[in-house]
Write a structure and sequence with these properties.
Shape: globular
Strand order of the largest sheet: 16-17-18-15-14-20-21
Number of helices: 17
Largest sheet: 7 strands, mixed
Helix content: 25-40%
Structural class: alpha/beta
Strand content: 15-25%
Bound molecules: nicotinamide-adenine-dinucleotide
Number of strands: 24
Length: 521
């Protein structure tokens, strides 16, 4: 097996599909260990968000291609699930090294398709890589339990076993990290995997599949299909697929949770967010303002854990002008340009949506303190840029507060006390992440205990847990009962078999059939 792999994108993409007269490259499917051109009659344009140029085309996979992919997963499951756990671990040990070796290549492809800055794109890959590294601990993670001498000569023990074919449906905002939350954890447990990347950023997932193949994953253990609703429905309905991991919007996530569950599948569905940063007047002002600005506007606010809402408590209200001043220093530019802090949004529609939410805030009586709607980026006039925007005087009924904006917009509310702030956060339908900024331990403790949100940071603006823990979004941000990665991820991708056995030194013969319920006592 190669210890090194250099991504050669030519292998994966073909200039000029037979279905298109255009010379734009087409994104291939990954079926049964081969990168293949789709026979699709419908294709989706992929744009560079900084320029809106079409850079490639992705197919809407045909039913035949999707069936071939799932059949390949099912065939591969027979041998992969029986492959020794040490051999599976070795694949992921090699995989983590190959991802590290190719992190810059992967980041470049993320920036071109998704728009985020190169540094941020490397972070995207890195946070996914950490999950792969964690998957390498599978020999401990997948241990069952034992209890000897349940009764005389009788022992009980459990195995964790893979489910079969699992599937992942990914969003556009983390082209590397989120697919890497999915198939490595699923596969290392012995499942085979069908991935449907976001149709807006499919290339990174295909490159990750190439690296996985180079790391020694057998043909069919990972298959990739492309598309939109038809591909999603195919996954929700196909009887061979046992579990679905979804990350994306509430609209899609609730639908997939219902349709997949109805068909008897396990579904974990990570969805939208409205993350509040509560700023106490005793906080370290310098750190807090810097952290707020970074967490609100990094990745142009297109992170599910972005701190998109600030609640200034008591005298911290007076910090607002300084928050605005610091934000003005951020540089809006194409993600591959040196010094860029805030890249473009994913699409003109996303830009239009964000701008209309800013307008709605103004119409409803909020005050736009910093307005990024008319930002100009020289050389990238056609890009989907919105500059950092701060909206003050916001009340909980306004649309800019009730809806997820998913752009570089910070809405600011005020509260008299910590209790008022907690009340606000708990009244919001989403429960993904939150942070409190304070130097008082008792305040922090009260907040972490009383707030009803899955992931809480204390002076940590984006508390995305490392993979030895799980990503624990809750309430309107999550459907399902087992979260992504960590112990819960292993639980999601395995089922438990419990074995009770009795071995007597001398086999005593029963005097007659025991027809009463065995009590094992
Ligand atoms: P999206 O829901 O539009 O797309 C996600 C996936 O679902 C894509 O693969 C897409 O093809 C498919 N899809 C889209 N609409 C669908 C529909 N109506 N029916 C069936 N399938 C559909 O999400 P997005 O715009 O790519 O991602 C942004 C969203 O994801 C935001 O809401 C963000 O908060 C959320 N997100 C959540 C987390 C988390 O862990 N909670 C992480 C990242 C992103």
């Amino acid at each position: 097996l190669p210890l090194r792999s250099t991504l050669k994108t030519k292998i994966l993409f073909k200039a000029g599909s037979r279905c298109y007269s255009s010379s734009k490259p087409t994104i291939k499917l990954f079926i049964d260990g081969k990168f293949v051109e789709s026979n699709a009659s419908e294709w989706i344009d992929i744009h560079n968000p900084a320029t809106n140029e079409v850079i490639a085309r992705v197919p809407k996979s045909t039913q035949q291609e999707m069936s071939a992919a799932v059949d390949s997963c099912a065939r591969a499951f027979r041998s992969w699930s029986e492959t020794s756990i040490l051999a599976r671990q070795q694949v992921f040990l090699r995989y983590q090294q190959l991802i590290k070796d190719n992190i810059k290549e992967l980041a470049k492809c993320i920036t071109v398709e998704q728009g985020k800055t190169l540094g941020d794109a490397e972070g995207d890959v890195f946070r996914g890589l950490q999950v792969v590294e964690h998957a390498c601990s599978i020999t401990s993670l997948m241990l069952g339990e034992t209890l000897p001498s349940i009764t005389k000569d009788m022992d009980t023990y459990t195995y964790r076993l893979p489910l079969g074919v699992c599937a992942g449906i990914a969003p556009f905002n983390f082209p590397a990290m989120i697919p890497l939350w999915m198939f490595p954890m699923g596969m290392v447990c012995g499942n085979t995997y069908l991935l449907k990347p976001s149709e807006r950023v499919p290339t990174c997932a295909v490159l990750l599949a190439k690296l996985l193949q180079d790391a020694g994953a057998p043909d069919g253990t990972l298959n990739i299909i492309h598309g939109q609703h038809d591909a999603v429905n195919f996954i929700c309905d196909h009887p061979t697929i046992k579990a679905i991991s979804f990350v994306g919007s509430n609209q899609a996530g609730e639908y997939i949770y219902e349709r997949g569950s109805k068909n008897g599948k396990r579904v974990q569905s990570n969805m939208g967010a409205k993350n509040h940063g509560v700023v106490m007047p005793d906080a370290n002002k310098e750190n807090t303002l810097n952290q707020l600005v970074g967490a609100a506007f990094g990745a142009a606010g297109q992170r599910c854990m972005a701190l998109s809402t600030a609640i200034l408590v008591g005298e911290a209200r007076g910090w607002l002008p300084e928050l605005v001043e610091r934000t003005k220093a951020l540089r809006v530019n194409a993600g591959d340009q040196p010094g860029a802090d805030v890249g473009p949004l994913i699409s003109p529609q996303a830009k239009q949506r964000v701008c209309s939410l800013i307008q709605s805030a103004e119409d409803e009586g909020a005050k736009v303190l910093l307005d990024g709607r008319r930002v100009k980026v020289t050389g990238y006039e056609n890009g989907n840029f919105v500059g950092p925007t701060i909206i003050g005087n916001v009340t909980p009924q306004m649309r800019c507060y009730t809806e997820e904006i998913f752009g570089p917009v910070l809405v600011v509310l005020e509260a008299d006390t910590l209790d008022d702030a907690i009340h606000l956060v708990n009244g919001n339908p989403y429960g993904n992440g939150t942070a409190i900024f304070t130097t008082n331990g008792a305040t922090a403790r009260k907040y972490t205990h009383e707030v009803d949100v899955g992931q809480v940071g204390v002076n940590v603006p984006i508390p995305v847990p490392l993979p030895m823990f799980s990503f624990t979004g809750s309430r309107g941000s999550f459907r399902g009962d087992m979260n992504f990665y960590g112990k819960q991820g292993i639980q999601f991708y395995t089922q438990i078999k419990t074995i009770t056995s009795q071995w007597k030194a001398e086999d005593a013969t029963l005097k007659g059939p025991a027809v009463t319920m065995p009590t094992m006592g």
